[in-house]
Specification:
Layout (H helix, E strand, L loop, with lengths): L3 E3 L1 H13 L5 H16 L10 H10 L9 E6 L2 E5 L5 H19 L1 E9 L5 H9 L4 E6 L20 E5 L7 E5 L6 H10 L8 E2 L9 H6 L1 E2 L4 H17 L22 E8 L1 H5 L3 H13 L9 H13 L1 E3 L1 H11 L3
Parallel strand pairs: 3-4
Antiparallel strand pairs: 1-11, 2-3, 4-10, 5-6, 5-10, 6-7, 8-9
């Protein structure tokens, strides 16, 4: 029988084991594993276990400091800076979520600028953590160059994800998570690992020609969603995530995918809002009225419904991995 099924706990343990064997502190490894396994369970394979080989390689080479402890720097009454110290983004993002959760109930709104950072994975993962604490969360992140400015031919900006989450009283948070490229770059990396072609329209090659070859796509540039309007949004996120946090621009950052060069030093801007005070206490009821109006129309669904269904299935049945994925995971976690 082809493939292998692992429980979430087993997959988590193997990811931790692999990272620890590649020069990562166990506590940091556990936070990385939390995020990778959660993404895999949600069906977001481009941000799941497919990232582990590059993470291990970068920790082993020192491009990512697996032993880094993020540090908080107060910036204003309701603003803070979190120095990821060239480590994995996940410990820094977890610290930002914790500090924002402490600030926001009294300030109403609070913001965290994360810098000296790395790939933050599935952006919705972090805002969902805020929403589970009763807060509205908004995240902007910049990534290494992958998208050209509109009318240009050379990659300047990253795929620059945006994520948004709102708490619901009787349901899981609603999470909206999108890359500003037509698809996340991680999906192309996953296609490359699996030896699969990609659909035309996702990317162009180094010569600017449409391609279905993931290798050529990774050497070329991604196409923005919404064409010129999408390119403007990419610029907006670059300013919020890089300029406002004092981080590297996409064209200054090294790759998330290989172990060569200096740390990428990208940024993330995480915003938290206390919905009750801001809405005069009307937030929960008004949100449910809106969502009910959406679902009242036949054929509609809320953002994230498919993801939550996949998550529930994974919790019950485990993660279905390809033979290649399983062998790679075992190899990385094995004793050297």
């Amino acid at each position: 029988m082809s493939g292998k099924t692992l429980t979430l706990e087993k997959a988590h343990g193997l990811v931790v084991q692999a990272l620890v064997k590649h020069r990562t502190d166990p506590a940091n490894a556990a936070l990385v594993a939390d995020a990778l396994v959660a993404a895999e369970a949600d069906g977001q394979k481009g941000h799941g276990l497919s990232r582990l080989p590059s993470y291990c390689g970068q920790a082993a080479s020192g491009k990512v400091d697996g032993f880094a402890t993020p540090q908080v720097q107060p910036a204003a009454a309701a603003a803070l800076r979190v120095d990821a110290r060239h480590g994995f983004a996940y410990p820094a993002m977890a610290l930002a979520v914790e500090k924002l959760s402490e600030l926001t109930p009294t300030s109403g709104v609070a913001v965290a600028a994360v810098f000296n950072s790395h790939h933050c994975g599935l952006a919705g993962y972090h805002v969902e953590a805020l929403a589970r604490r009763g807060l509205v969360g908004l995240l902007f992140a910049n990534t290494p160059q992958a998208i050209a400015p509109w009318g240009g031919s050379r990659g300047l900006f990253g795929t620059n994800p945006i994520a948004f989450a709102v708490p619901r009283e009787k349901h899981d948070p609603m999470v909206i998570d999108l890359s500003l490229s037509k698809v996340a770059r991680g999906k192309i990396m996953f296609a490359k690992q699996e030896g699969q072609a990609i659909p035309e329209g996702w990317a162009v090659d180094a010569a600017g020609k449409p391609t279905t070859d993931p290798v050529a796509a990774l050497a070329g540039t991604m196409l923005p969603m919404g064409d010129a309007k999408g390119a403007a949004l990419v610029l907006m996120v670059e300013i919020l995530a890089a300029v406002l946090t004092g981080s590297h621009f996409g064209f200054e950052a090294t790759s998330f995918f290989d172990a060569e060069g200096e740390p990428p030093s990208v940024g993330q801007l995480l915003l938290a809002m206390a919905p009750g005070p801001v809405s005069g206490g009307a937030f929960a009821s008004r949100l449910e009225t809106l969502l009910a109006a959406i679902l009242d129309q036949e054929g509609t669904r809320l953002p994230g419904d498919r993801r939550l269904g996949l998550r529930e299935k994974a919790q019950k049945e485990g993660l279905a991995l390809t033979d290649q994925q399983y062998e790679q995971l075992q190899r990385l976690a094995a004793d050297h």
